[in-house]
Amino acid sequence: MKVLQILHTDEIGGIQTLANMIGQGLAQHGVDVETAIMFPRPFMPAKDKLRAAISMARRIMRGGYDAAIAYQATASILVGTAGRLAGYKHRIVHQTAVPRETAPIVRWLDRLVGTTGGYTANIANSVFTQNEFTQYPMTYRRGLKLIEHGLDAPRPSLTMAQARQRFGLPATGKLILNVGRLVDQKNQDVLVKALPALPGATLVIAGDGPRRAQIEALAQAFGVQERLILLGNVAPADVPELFAAADVFAFPSVWETFGLAAVEAAMVGLPSVVADLDVLREVLATGEIAPIRFANPHDVKRWKDSLGQMLRNPPPPAMRREAARAVTAKYARERMVDSYLDLLQVAH
């Protein structure tokens, strides 16, 4: 079997991580997986994006694949239309954004293609995301399938001191880590605004994006520019070592469909303060006690208080280990890969 995976861009992030894991898992079972990037560079002008989309549609129409897997909305629409016309037996798409955060024309086209049978499987990676489509037509919702992310638990190999030295981070003092693209969704502004109330703490952000200059200017305005470190994009293989360097993980997104970085931090038992979103309460649920605090993503005072409390009184190691084991068991990578093999009707 030959499968074409389509991503919008090659930006480092949760979607790329998911596609890599699925591609590797399928390949281990004899599936020939080819991954294509639709937009060769981020933030392309609209006319260049249109050309790229037409080029990708032509590639799909040329055939030669048994299945196509799309990871973002525009790619999903192409797979559901061009893939259907080309006779692809399996047209699998992912809902990696909630409908209200998708451009209206793209949202309308996705709804149309899904309602008319363009997708053979329409994947939601959390119950929350699946429930975001309750107002869609029944014919659309029949194609929705819940496949929660599967992850390999991060395994840091360095001590805190070694990890800080490797990334050029302060050897002493408390370190707050955020992993995410520098975009409005990830809401790093609230962390910068909270930093003046956390003396001696340094905020480290691993990720890049169009809001870098604004975040730097905000840090300057709040007088914390010396305690903000923007690492830029960090290879996924290096993120576990960043977890080892940190005292607290902070994840203030205003919306998510899963929250991959927050789950990875939980898997290593890193004390965390995360946005109080239904989806994060779902995916991080491990019982009544966990080394996690939830904060309204827009409430700066709540972030000041929660981060301060977590830095001053970190959860005991036993609690952290138990919560890490629970999250790791919940999101086994093999379970996710098996679900995709079933969709593709590949024996395993």
From TrEMBL:
Residues 163-325 form the Glycosyl transferase family domain. The keyword Zinc-finger does not apply. Keywords: Transferase. The keyword Transferase applies. It holds the Pfam family Glycos_transf_1. One of its GO terms (molecular function) is glycosyltransferase activity. It comes from the Bacteria. PANTHER family: GLYCOSYLTRANSFERASE. This is Glycosyltransferase involved in cell wall biosynthesis. It comes from Chelatococcus asaccharovorans.
